[in-house]
Write a structure and sequence with these properties.
This protein is mainly alpha-helical and about 475 residues long. Helix content is about 75%, strand content about 0%. It starts with a helix and ends in a 7-residue tail after the last helix. One of its GO terms (cellular component) is plasma membrane.
């Protein structure tokens, strides 16, 4: 028995390995760019530090406790909610996770075409000069093509997603290293100076600041994806918190150093006067400028662009397929979702579910044809994603609060804290912060963007409430709905 335990421990991963896995899952270069653009350059540093210490660290540790408690659950957040709150709430959690991806799916097609324009032309002057109706038509065609790919169960792009994701992660790290090395290699290239005074690092707490916080919440979210690995770490009660603390430190260092690297390249005043351009193209412009510093022209930008093309389109397929399978493939689905949506074709794809994605995401793509240009579309999608995607994190905190409320019912190998008051405070605090950022993020000075930010969540929530009612009528009487 002792020998078997030793062999089992030998197969388990070390905590630094888990920390690196989590880092590559949670973090990306786009987060650095968005933080720099939305929060006036280096003024985002203060906000990053606060977000990591007061939000990300407790969030990650709560995920660790949930993962350790429900180590055999395969449904992620929905399984946690099912175990702690019941099947009805688990359905709503699964629906939220899927509904959030409706906007995300729309952004992948737009992002993929933009990356392709950079990869082919080395800029987006031609692409951004097209009428918005044309670019949205192209986006719709791409979206419909990948919906067809999903319906055929073609797996090749799913494999490419892992390769693209890894390469993008490596390039994000290399960007920071190479940018700080650039002044030594090419001292006369013309860099901006960084002021490390209080004024340059302290944000202005105004309406713009408060309504942009959802960008940071969106950036640090998603660590629940690593919950299946909690019990695959040696001595999880001791080593999982180490991995999560290491993750928080790595993300914080990457965000801060990435911000300073951007500050050497771009003047925040210029960025503020061209927000849509930098939101849409900032990452490509950064790699283009890095190539100029190293006298290799657009090499880094082209590599980044084509990695992003593969990443955006493969993620599009995964985002159509995976959340749909999590929603419709769960036990809760059969109790709360009409039978027609559960139809599976010969390739194993939820064909009517894909049609639902086509109608909702396709409708959003079509509606954005009313915006003035392709840059405005990209900027709006970034903001809309930041207000909708974090809604799924609310279920993590709700499940954690419910877990601590009924903790005597469950066995776990790891707890964030044994103090019940502190555990409740952390769960409630993170829930309130997430909800507040989502609500505040809805505001936009642009009337059409504000309208879409309001109407999109309303439609998705309403549909989530209507489907169980249809199912109840379909069954005649469903006692689970009472």
């Amino acid at each position: 028995m002792i020998e078997e335990e030793k062999k089992s421990d030998a197969k388990k991963m070390l905590w630094p390995t888990l920390a690196m896995m989590a880092f590559s899952t949670v973090w990306g270069f786009g987060n650095v760019v968005n933080g720099y653009v939305y929060f006036d350059g280096t003024k985002v540093v203060f906000s990053w530090v606060l977000m990591f210490l007061l939000y990300f660290v407790p969030y990650a540790l709560m995920v660790g406790e949930l993962g350790a408690t429900f180590k055999n659950a395969n449904g992620g957040v929905s399984s946690w909610v099912n175990a702690t709150m019941g099947a009805k709430w688990a359905y709503y959690a699964g629906w939220t996770y899927w509904a959030c991806h409706v906007v995300y799916i729309s952004s992948k097609g737009t992002g993929g075409l933009r990356a392709m324009a950079w990869g082919i032309f080395g800029n987006t002057k031609w692409y951004d000069g097209l009428p918005t109706a044309w670019t949205q038509l192209a986006t719709l065609v791409v979206f419909l093509f990948f919906c067809w790919v999903t319906s055929k169960g073609i797996p090749v792009l799913k494999s490419l997603a892992t390769i693209a994701g890894s390469s993008m992660f490596i390039m994000s790290i290399l960007f920071i290293i190479m940018m700080f090395a650039a002044p030594a290699i090419n001292p006369h290239a013309g860099y901006y100076s960084i002021n490390f005074n209080w004024k340059s690092l302290m944000p202005t707490f105004n309406l713009k600041y408060l309504t942009s916080l959802s960008i940071l919440v969106f950036a640090v979210g998603g660590c629940e994806k690593i919950s299946p690995y909690v019990n695959k770490v040696k001595d999880p009660s001791k080593n999982f918190p180490k991995a999560m603390m290491a993750l928080a430190i790595m993300v914080m260092i990457s965000a801060i150093l990435g911000t300073f690297a951007m500050a050497l390249m771009f003047d925040p005043k210029v960025v503020n006067n061209n927000l849509n351009e930098y939101i849409s193209n900032g990452a490509y412009m950064a790699f283009q400028r890095l190539g100029d510093y190293y006298h290799v022209g657009g090499l880094f930008m082209y590599i980044y662009s084509w990695c992003n093309v593969i990443g955006q389109f493969s993620t599009l397929v995964i985002s159509i397929d995976a959340p749909l399978r999590m929603l419709l493939g769960s036990k809760e689905a059969k109790k709360f979702i009409p039978k027609k949506l559960l139809k599976v074709n010969k390739h194993g794809a939820y064909i009517n579910g894909i049609w639902m994605v086509v109608i909702l995401s396709g409708g959003l793509i079509a509606a954005q044809a009313l915006l003035p240009d392709a840059q405005a579309v990209m900027a709006q999608l970034v903001k809309l994603n930041s207000t909708t995607m974090p809604m799924r994190y609310l279920w993590v905190f709700a499940a954690y609060i419910a877990l601590r409320k009924h903790q005597t019912k469950f066995d776990t190998s790891y707890q964030m804290t044994k103090n019940q008051g502190l555990a409740y405070t952390a769960g409630i605090w993170c829930f309130i912060v997430t909800a507040a950022c989502c609500i505040l993020g809805i505001y936009s000075p642009d009337p059409f963007t504000l309208f879409l930010n309001i109407i999109t969540p309303i439609i998705l929530i309403a549909l989530g409430l209507i489907l169980p009612a249809i199912k109840k009528k379909e069954d005649g009487n469903n006692p689970l709905m009472d």
